[in-house]
Amino acid sequence: MDNESQRLAAQTMAFVLAGGRGSRLFELTDRRAKPAMYFGGKTRIIDFALSNAVNSGIRRIGVATQYKAHSLIRHLQRGWSFFRAERNESLDILPASQRLDEENWYRGTADAVWQNKDIIEGYSPKFIVVLAGDHIYKQDYSRMIQHHVESGADVTVGCIEVPRMEASGFGVMKVDTNDNILEFVEKPADPPPMPGHPDLALASMGIYVFETKFLLELLEQDAANPESTQDFGGDLIPSIVKNGKAVAHPFSRSCVRSGLEKKPYWRDVGTVDAFWRANIDLTDFVPELDIYDNEWPIWTYSELTPPAKFIHNEEGRRGLAVSSMVSGGCIISGSSLDRCLLFTGVNTHSFSQLEGVVAMPYVEINRKARLKDVVIDRGVIIPAGLVVGEDPELDAKRFRRTENGITLITQPMIDALND
């Protein structure tokens, strides 16, 4: 990070949109917002956007919460309370309750920022980075802010380069050779290619850089427009593309990679399959995402736990783990783990066999259970002898099984087995 980008980051506020439900995660988001979902053994999804901001030198952060926000707010209070006002640092939690009329939800992403105009103006940042709080990636936002300033753009939109025919699920940018956005198309059937790369398209990451003064004027106009849905992707960005200067910032220019990461890593873990895959991928010999990179730490709330413990050493009853990640407070008692990721405080009992298991905190797996390719919600007690992953029809009757063969297990599903 050079001096100029550091200086710009110090003048910036990050506004994190963390209100999303993530309905395609089904029961996993019944009690928590998607940004509060566990990821990678000890972190939560929102920790990536927040850590990127802190590591980029941004010390003013606002987090707008909405859907089932309790666990998210509790996590922010416990893990992100190290900001010091006397050092011009702050993290504000901004629940959707600022309105005085009967409608107190944020109407859209732009409305979430507009409702907190007074708080933003109180800090008087020169720039604002608007972020989605529900993606997994490492990015130096200061480089993107610098690109914004150098290009003279009204808005700079963070984009990932994706295979062109996979881009139809995103908002896609048609750009010229100078990164100017000529057209912003939402979920196109035939995505426009990148100049010089006919097989790739630029898809929006939901990251935007604005000068604060310009953004607040724009939001005021948008709030007064009865036709608007008050959404960045739906209303504001297309309007700037048409009437102003919008510039695309390819993620590859500011993504943070250690020596082990071969290509830029960005994931939306918005389905059970994607969530399972991204967690299990961390157990690879050389994973695509390096969470061991001390140069770019992922900050989080760390519970005080004893180290993981492996016990018993008899044939068929040996505490062992291969190609797995096991968090603090876990006790692997006479069980075998193969390509598993266990969060804090998971207990597995004798003769159980786990393969491709993502177990959230404080799961208990009783004796002789055999589990393959499953995601287990927090605090679930797996009964002795339960077998999952061997009979697809039976699994689909008792639990939620995806088309790709991943089974989601929650406590109500376990309780229903006895009814």
Automatic annotation (TrEMBL):
EC number of this enzyme: 2.7.7.27
PROSITE patterns: ADP_GLC_PYROPHOSPH_2, ADP_GLC_PYROPHOSPH_3
Keywords for this protein: ATP-binding, Carbohydrate metabolism, Glycogen biosynthesis, Glycogen metabolism, Nucleotide-binding, Nucleotidyltransferase, Transferase
Source domain of life: Bacteria
Pfam families named among the record's database cross-references: Hexapep_GlmU, NTP_transferase
The protein's enzyme class: transferase
The Glucose-1-phosphate adenylyltransferase/Bifunctional protein GlmU-like C-terminal hexapeptide domain, residue ranges: 306-409
Keyword Chaperone on entry: no
Chain sites annotated for binding alpha-D-glucose 1-phosphate: 106, 171, 186-187, 204
Cited InterPro entries: ADP-Glc_PPase (IPR011831), ADP_Glu_pyroP_CS (IPR005836), GlgC_bac (IPR023049), GlmU/GlgC-like_hexapep (IPR056818), NTP_transferase_dom (IPR005835), Nucleotide-diphossugar_trans (IPR029044), Trimer_LpxA-like_sf (IPR011004)
Residues at the site labelled Could play a key role in the communication between the regulatory and the substrate sites: 66, 105
Residues of the Nucleotidyl transferase domain: 14-283
UniProt keyword Nucleotide-binding, yes or no: yes
UniProt pathway annotation: Glycan biosynthesis; glycogen biosynthesis
Swiss-Prot/TrEMBL catalytic activity: alpha-D-glucose 1-phosphate + ATP + H(+) = ADP-alpha-D-glucose + diphosphate
GO molecular function: glucose-1-phosphate adenylyltransferase activity
Protein purpose: Involved in the biosynthesis of ADP-glucose, a building block required for the elongation reactions to produce glycogen. Catalyzes the reaction between ATP and alpha-D-glucose 1-phosphate (G1P) to produce pyrophosphate and ADP-Glc.
Record's subunit section: Homotetramer.
HAMAP family, sorted: GlgC
NCBIfam families the record matches: glgC (TIGR02091), PRK00725.1 (NF001947), PRK00844.1 (NF002023)
Family: Belongs to the bacterial/plant glucose-1-phosphate adenylyltransferase family.
Protein name (record): Glucose-1-phosphate adenylyltransferase
Species per Swiss-Prot/TrEMBL record: Sedimentitalea todarodis
Originating gene: glgC
